[in-house]
Each structure stands twice: as C-alpha cells, then as structure tokens.
Predict the structure.
Amino acid sequence: MSLRFDVDAVVLDIEGTTSATGFVVDVLYPYSRARFGELLTRRADEPEVARAVAQVRELTGEHTADAAAVEKTLGTWLDEDRKATPLKTLQGIIWSEGFARGDLVSHFYDDVVPALRAWRAAGLRLYVYSSGSVAAQRAWFSSTPEGDLLPLVAGLYDTENAGPKQEPESYRRIAESAGLAPGRLLFLSDRPGELDAARAAGWHTVGVRRPGEPYYEQGVGDHAQAGTFDEISVNTSGSTA
C-alpha cells in the first residue's frame, strides 16, 4: 500500500533512512577515530578545528583541555554515539577529505537513489537534515556508487545551522529557510523523537523502518511508516509522481 502526500519538498534523514547505520558505525566512525589525533595537533590553528575544540571544552567544562584530552572526549562521544556538534564538525572534516581521496564511498539503500531521482524529476525539492555536519553531508552525497548526487539536493541542514533534531523549532527554521509552509514539507526518518518534533512543527512525517536498523524494533509510534521509499508517493504542483 502506497503512502501519498501532496507536498513541495522532502527532507531526508541519513542514518537508518537513506543509508545503513552499520556503514556509518563500522566504516566511518573508525576512520575518523584514527585521524582525530593528527587533526587536533597538526591542524589546530585552522579556524574550523579551533572552533570545534573550543566547543568541546565548553561542553565538558574543561577549558584548558589539551589535544590529548579533547581526543579522549571525542572517542568517548563516539562510543556513546553522541550527536555533539563539535564531534560532527571534526568528523565532517576528516570524512570530506577521505571521500575526496577515494578512501571512502558512501552507502545508500537500493530503493533510495531511484526514488530521489524520480521525485526531483517531478519537480520536488529535496533537502537533507542530519546530525552529521553539512560538510559530511556534502561529501556523502557527492561520493556515491551512483556518482555525484549533490545536484539533486536543494539544501543541507545539521544541528548547527538548524538546531537539535528532536526540537520542533529546528524544523520551523528549516521551513523558513526553504521558504515553504510547514504543511508543504515531508520528513523521512527512522527516529520517533525526530518525527514527533517535525510533526509538532506542522510537517508531514513518515517513519522509515528497515530490518536491522537500531530503531526497527522500537517502531515509529503513531506516524505513517514505510519499509522502503518505493512505498511513498509524492505529488507536488504539476506533478504526477
């Protein structure tokens, strides 16, 4: 049974929705962990690195923490899968470079890319809202087995430019930034708390439930749910998608 929505844009979560959480945890996390030390020492004066380090110190209350202490904190946050903005910023720097070098190629579920191309061709706008940094999102979508998918995407949002993913105000910011009424936006995510926040901001929501993903057994509460993007049909102005 197909879920049908009359909207102008779809906003995509990544982990567990477009892509396997296991790939992020098993491939990307170790890749960044192995490179934090060098980033924090050799490139400490780079503005983006320095700003992230300052944020780590602020969040931990350790205002004089050296590179080794910051690296330890980042490792702890990785183990906890914390969605801390400075962690995501530093990961994004490392991952972007890894994708650019060809060390990394992103993962998408088989049903995702055909759906995104079809929706975009039908005139729908596509956005990404992930806890991963905008830099990481840009690298992720530009370095895929299907080639560069970034031209499909109208905008990228993270916890820094939009806010925490479980707060309705973050979704209001995205709607305002996109210039769209909340009721013209559809959010796809596997996390109930994020879906609740989007709905509270007036958005349409679909919980994506894929076997093997961390939130599969928990379910998506009372939100509409889909196992693949094939089960979602979207119409926009002049569209027959």
User: Anything to note?
Assistant: The longest strand covers residues 125-129. The CA atoms of residues 74 and 132 lie 14 Å apart. The chain has a mean pLDDT of 95.
